[in-house]
Amino acid sequence: MKIAVFAGDGIGPEVTREAVRVLEALDLPGLVLFEGDVGGIAYKRHGHPLPAETLEIARSCDAILFGAVGDPDCDNLERHLRPEQAILGLRKELGLFANLRPAKVFAGLEDASALRPEVASKIDLLIVRELNGDVYFGEKGIRILPDGRRQGWDMMSYAEDEVRRIAHVGFRAAMGRGKKLCSVDKANVLETSQVWRDVMIEVAKDYPEVELSHMYVDNAAMQLVRNPGQFDVVVTGNLFGDILSDQASMCVGSIGLLASASLSDGKMGLYEPIHGSAPDIAGKGLANPMATILSAAMLLRHSLGLEAQAARIEAAVAKTLADGIRGGDLGGSHGTAAIGDAVLERL
Ligand code: ATP
Ligand code: MG
């Protein structure tokens, strides 16, 4: 089992260090870690945010644990040299087409949510967002109309096979959770969504234990706030998923706790906290490493098939939080290493 560790910029190295300590404490037989540079630090050392050496390491590993990229020093670089290009490049080069974001309110943290505590406490859902299609990658342009007005246009499209592979990711995830899948589209208006919905119904036949429902995206946005407890797995396209996954994050409320996975067809996946490099607190030992530790748990589950070990990490995190250990993002006073220590003790 080979894991690439790309810590990146800002608080990336600090939070990644704690996640690595947790992985090492599990004593997984045959586990080897390989470090590589990404982001601003990679630009400074190698002249590129995603150097060939780093890509090479990624390709030779089963999974990537990723910290964060972003560096104020790089703000004036040409777009292709900016730190953020590292993550976009990895997604493209490794065919990472499925983004998974679990949103769950841990016991004792109901107050961090933007929702009422009794509503927030019921949130335990997973958003599965397609990453490689939709309006992001369709033809687009700005044209000048005969009367001189500028008109922008973006083509939204999904082919059946693109929907099918994300559908399988969603259904497999549902099998490992509450066995409910809600497919979100806008089939009353969009042809893209009609294809999307038909394929979801077709793929559902392979997973008879999973209960499939459909929801229009506008209703889904409302239901996420009104009654998020009704959702288990939510599968949706790139654009709707972009919006709904941020919305779901804030329903939980704590940026330092939220993990994510980006998966490919095979074992390879990239796992990272949803927060960025947080330059304002970098190097101070203040960052909450929980999101990265939980990303490491997702790595064990999705890329290495180590469900029991993943659950062990998640239980240790839940216990740590239940015991009142809080980072600054949650109004607490525990620093990065202290939180890491607390999780390790409970592991
Ligand atoms: P980037 O450009 O890399 O996305 P950013 O400036 O958008 O960086 P974020 O990382 O998204 O910053 O963070 C937004 C705010 O949340 C910052 O004030 C940051 O300090 C805080 N924050 C982010 N992650 C954490 C964390 N793990 N622990 C504590 N605070 C955090
Ligand atoms: Mg940001």
Describe it for me?
The chain is of the alpha/beta class. The protein folds into two domains: 1-97 and 264-347, Isopropylmalate Dehydrogenase (3-Layer(aba) Sandwich), CATH 3.40.718.10; 101-257, Isopropylmalate Dehydrogenase (3-Layer(aba) Sandwich). It is 40% helix and 19% strand. The chain is built from twelve helices and twelve strands. The strands form two sheets. A ten-stranded mixed beta sheet has the order 2-1-3-12-11-4-5-10-8-9, with helices on both faces. The longest helix is centred in the middle third of the chain and has 16 residues, at 160-175. The protein starts with a strand and ends with a helix. The mean pLDDT is 96. Adenosine-5'-triphosphate binds at residues 11, 15, 68, 70, 255-256, 275-281, 287-288, 291, 327-329. Residues 11, 15, 68, 70, 255-256, 275-281, 287-288, 291, 327-329 line the site of adenosine-5'-triphosphate (ATP). Residues 2-343 form the Isopropylmalate dehydrogenase-like domain.
